[in-house]
Amino acid sequence: MFQQASLTNRQQQILWATIRHYIATAEPVGSKALATEYDLSVSPATIRSCMGVLEKAGLLYQPHTSAGRVPSDSGYRIYVDQLITPSDSLGRRVEHLLADHLNFEEASFEAILREATQILATVSGYIALITLPQTRTTRLRHLQLVQIEPRRVMLIVVTDSYETQSVLMELPPLGDEMTQDESMMDRELQIISNFLNSKLRERSLSELASLDWSEVDREFAQYADCLKRLLTDLIRRTTAPVPTQIMIRGISEVLRQPEFSELQQVKNLVHLLEEEQDLLWPVIFEVPETLGLDRRVKVRIGSENPLEPMRTCTLVSATYQQGEVPVGSVGILGPTRMLYENAIALVETAANYLTGALSEPA
């Protein structure tokens, strides 16, 4: 895929203008339209040449020989990652709407999420999805690091339901003296195991990534990076959520978009949303690699979606948390020709708002 450094400023401007025009019109974009409607300070011929370069790079394509060009999934990816900024003004607007309409004192949390979903669908014009929070949390009962052979260690974890998980890891070179003395390695692994147990016992597995590694004595810092990667992998393998209800609003509105003109395509998408939420759940509820305040919005564009009915769509999603633990997710699903600046701002604002609400004392 093209990186930003591979595109000149002019190519970035023309890619941005092409995508903006296509989002607005749903019609293939020609060089004359861009020259007329955008201040690109170049001739239609130059724009046409640049669009040809972008097409060869796989960022644009022509649906028909005589037509203008439309963005590819790769073009949208460059646009989302490098050429736009989420709309702060829309984020503030939806935050005010959520504050005005969500009554946490009188309504059930399910009713609140239903209202929040409707607000997101109405403001975005796309399908809004919010999952009910998880109620089951797997907690750590015991953790042990065991040396299997030089520079090869097994992490064994026992949960509160007495399920056992084990993961192997390779240690980095630790110096000749340490690698030769297995008893010293065993002592160090026991010390680290004791430290991890004292910090993590009875905490949920989703909280493992929030451990403050600065508390590890300097002499054990060489293990920290390996253990962080190991614990992140363990979280992904062990915290398989139990699917719960997904609030969905906005289906009828978004299906009026020209991308959904094929009846079978519409049927497949509606069937997924209404009848196969067990398949949809893990796509929406995806625990990020880093937890805490550094939450990132996930944007899956077209073919990046794992489920076939969604591959003409974009899913914008983010988890909301209770404390440090992701318990649910907020998502917006629409055509790849969506207003990404708005969708990202809406999802991020709603996820942050629900996190704040769940973090407040009862």
TrEMBL record:
Top-level taxon in the UniProt lineage: Bacteria
Alphabetical UniProt keywords: Repressor, Stress response, Transcription, Transcription regulation
Domain Heat-inducible transcription repressor HrcA C-terminal residues, every copy: 110-344
SUPFAM superfamilies, per the entry: GAF domain-like, Winged helix' DNA-binding domain
PANTHER family: HEAT-INDUCIBLE TRANSCRIPTION REPRESSOR HRCA
UniProt record similarity statement: Belongs to the HrcA family.
Protein known as: Heat-inducible transcription repressor HrcA
Species the sequence originates in: Allocoleopsis franciscana PCC 7113
Taxonomic lineage from the root: Bacteria, Bacillati, Cyanobacteriota, Cyanophyceae, Coleofasciculales
Gene this chain is encoded by: hrcA
